[in-house]
Specification:
It is built from 9 helices and 6 strands. By secondary structure, the protein is α/β, with parallel strands linked by helices. The chain has one domain: 3-Layer(aba) Sandwich (Undecaprenyl pyrophosphate synthetase). The structure holds farnesyl diphosphate. Farnesyl diphosphate binds next to helix 2, helix 3, strand 2 and helix 4.
Length: 256
């Protein structure tokens, strides 16, 4: 309790990232290290999801996106896919009251139509119930793949061109953003990946253009609120220039 207070004290609530996205990785390795079935890792990972959603809300993060199931994950053994779907459904049902109490709005990003009917129905129910909540947006990326998302957007834009609604030369970056699952959402300021892999794995390829990346070796089931806060503090210490130079440089680029 004491160390938690010390850490929160150093976090500047005025400089929080508007949108934090997390590639939750390492459930399988967590289980393997304990000679357990991979599903046990996902179960423990679900508990971490709960604690990080709570932490994000309490800290005042506006939007949290969790990469929970990728378009590629369908190729995993059937038993693992079923277990993940069961855990997702359980989360969507069991966290409903908590999301309402905490004012969290739930969105699904991804191919919702590919999810099993029961999972889709619970997702719709929780999404509908929490629709007007203003506290934090929780995006669950489910059957999500960035290339698939971009392809879908390109097809929608192509249809608008064919219908004469827009001309090819009128396409802007904003228009492309508006044809992604994340339409009208801020790009992630910070993307955290657990378990030490240095890749994006088909996650938010368009939206990550200027995201700060943080890779931790911690496996997702071991990820804690304390480490989350440390990463947020690290984010606040970074110098984000968005391809520009600092204001304190002269026009010729030399430091002033
Ligand atoms: C990656 O670990 C994790 C996933 C593919 C699934 C993430 C799912 C959860 C955290 C639990 C369910 C989600 C919610 C929202 C309740 P991995 O299996 O690829 O791990 P490995 O790389 O160590 O094998």
């Amino acid at each position: 309790m004491k160390s938690e207070n010390i850490q929160t004290a150093t976090l500047d609530s005025e400089k929080l990232p508007a949108h934090v996205a997390v590639i939750m990785d390492g459930n399988g390795r967590w289980a393997k290290k304990r000679l357990m079935n991979r599903v046990k890792g996902h179960e423990k990972g679900s508990q971490t999801v709960r604690s990080i959603v709570t932490a994000a809300r309490e800290l005042g993060i506006g939007m949290l996106t969790l990469y929970a199931f990728s378009t590629e994950n369908w190729a995993r053994p059937k038993i693992e896919v079923s277990a993940l779907m069961m855990l997702l459904k359980r989360f969507l049902v069991s966290e409903r009251d908590e999301l309402m109490t905490r004012g969290v709005r739930l969105n699904i990003l991804g191919q919702k139509e590919k999810l099993p009917k029961d999972v889709r129905e619970e997702a719709d129910k929780t999404g509908g119930m929490t629709r007007n909540n203003q506290g934090m947006v929780l995006n669950l990326a489910l059957s999500y793949g960035s290339r698939q998302e971009i392809t879908l957007g390109v097809k929608a834009l192509a249809r608008k061109i064919k219908a004469g609604v827009i001309q090819p030369g009128e396409i802007t970056e904003e228009m492309i953003s508006d044809h992604l699952y994340t339409r009208q959402m801020p790009d992630p300021d910070l993307i955290i990946r657990t378990s030490g892999e240095f890749r994006l794995s088909n996650f938010m390829l368009w939206q990550a253009a200027y995201s700060e990346l943080f890779i931790t070796n911690t496996l997702w089931p071991d990820f804690t609120r304390e480490e989350f806060i440390e990463i947020l503090i690290n984010f606040q210490e970074r110098d984000r220039r968005f391809g520009k130079v600092k204001c304190s440089t002269s026009n010729d680029g030399s430091p002033q």
